[in-house]
Amino acid sequence: MASQKTECFILRKIPLRETSWILTALTCSFGKLKGVVKGARKAKSIWASSCELMTHANMVFFEKAKTNLHLITELSILDSHEKLRNRFAALAYASYFAELLDQLLEEHDPHSDAFQLLQATVKLLEEPKGSLLVLARAFEIKLLELLGFLPRFADCIHCGSALEPNRLKDRAVSNSIGALSSSELQGRVYFSSRQGGIFCKLCHQRFGGGIEISQGSLQAIRFILRSSLEEASRIKLGNQIQKELAQITKQFIEYRIERSMRALQFISEVAPLISES
Description:
This protein is α+β, with helices and mostly antiparallel strands and about 280 residues long. It is built from 9 helices and 8 strands. The longest helix is centred in the last third of the chain and has 19 residues. It is elongated and about 65 Å long. The N and C termini lie far apart (about 45 Å).
C-alpha cells in the first residue's frame, strides 16, 4: 500500500460497523475517493469534527490496489467551516452540492478545477454575496462546464443557427444586477435535456420536443459562464428566470445521472423555512 497526502473536502459519511466511518471526499490531487476512518465513531474520538460535511482538511491515506476503499490515517483540519453548519439554508445547499459532486464525478479522476470551484462555493455559502438560489445555479452550470457535460447554449442543435439573446441593459452585466424586465423576456427558444442543448422556434415547429425558455434565461446562463463565481452569484433575476434556470439544470442533471437528487428535493420541500441573508 502506498501512502498519499492531499487536501480534501468531506462530501459524505456512512457508518461502517459500530466504530468506523466510510468517507467520500473530493481531493485536490486524486479526485473523488472513498476511505475508511477506523474508530472515528467511538466516544471521544479525535476524528469527530474532521469527518463533518465540507470540512477542509489535509488527508493522509493508504491507497489499496485491489479496492476503491482506502484506509484514511490522518485528517488535519484546515477549516472546519463550522459557520456553514450553523445556518440551515447554507447547510441544505452544501448537502446538495456534495451530492451533485458525488453523482457527477468518477472515482480517482483528478479535477483540481472542481476542487477549486467547491472551495470558492463553500466560502460564498458561509459569507453570501447574493442569493443562494442563484449561487446554486451558478455552481451547477460551472460544474457542468468544467466536467465537459454542459449542454449547447450558443446555437441551435438542429440547424446550427446562432441564438443571440437580446442585449441586456448595462445594469445586467454589473455587480448590482437588477431583476430582468418583461421586455427582456421576449423571444423564446427551446431546451432539450435528451438532445443536449437549445433549438430555435423553426426547428421546434419541425421536430417538436423540449421546454420553452426565455431569452432572459439564455442570457443569464451566458453571464454565469463568462463571470467569476462570486460575480455570478450577485446576479439578481426575476422569478420567471429563476424558475426556468432551476428547471433547466434539474432536468438536465437528473437526465444525466438517471436519478432524482434527494438534497434538491429536500430544499424544495423546506423552501418556505429557508431565509437567505
